[in-house]
Amino acid sequence: MARRGSYAKGVAKREEILERSLDVIAREGYRGASVKELADAVGLSQAGLLHYFDSKEELFTEILRKRDEVDARAYGGSSEVVSPDGLRDGFVGVIRHNADVPGLVQLYSRMAVDAADTSHPAHRYFVDRNSALRASFADGLRALQAEGRLTDVVDAETLARIVQAVADGLQLQWMQDPSTDMAGTVEAMFRALDPSVPAGDPKETS
């Protein structure tokens, strides 16, 4: 019983670390969020913090995983069935929310580059995440194509990869130029792919 209670406390502390770390990085930015600051936020020493993770890289990987979990609850994409419109609107909602948490965007973008190395602790996270995101999007885009609300000139799997590439690329542009309207640009892309929107439609991104 004591061992079970100790395990439960360890899981709870790990969750607290991840949740508090999300707040610290969102507020202080990736550069300002040192292991010391994250440890201070939960009342631990640096060694005490890393007791719950194999390395600093694993800590940051799990922070990104926690962010995905939080975003899924807030914007859809969890285990319940999500409509094609809900999936698309939830994706745009996440992108719009990202503009309010620049530190987490910086963390994601920097880790994504480092994780191209197959030995990096975050490599499997990014491979699995990207694959799952494309699969979910392909299903939603395929349904929109079947309804005639999205061009079928390009297959859904390729469109899903294009949407993902646009979103990731916009994050880099936004970090360099914060005036970039990431969500508005993605919404404009979906309008451009909608065959019901006349050529030269006067709508502009907000």
UniProtKB/TrEMBL annotation:
Keywords associated with the record: DNA-binding, Transcription, Transcription regulation
Location of the DNA-binding region in this protein: 34-53
Domain called HTH tetR-type: residue spans: 11-71
Stretch forming the signal peptide: none
Pfam families for this protein: TetR_N (PF00440)
InterPro entries found in the cross-reference section: Homeodomain-like_sf, HTH_TetR, Tet_transcr_reg_TetR-rel_C_sf
Gene Ontology MF terms: DNA binding
Keyword Phosphoprotein: no
Keyword Lipid metabolism attributed: no
Name of protein: AcrR family transcriptional regulator
Organism: Microbacterium thalassium
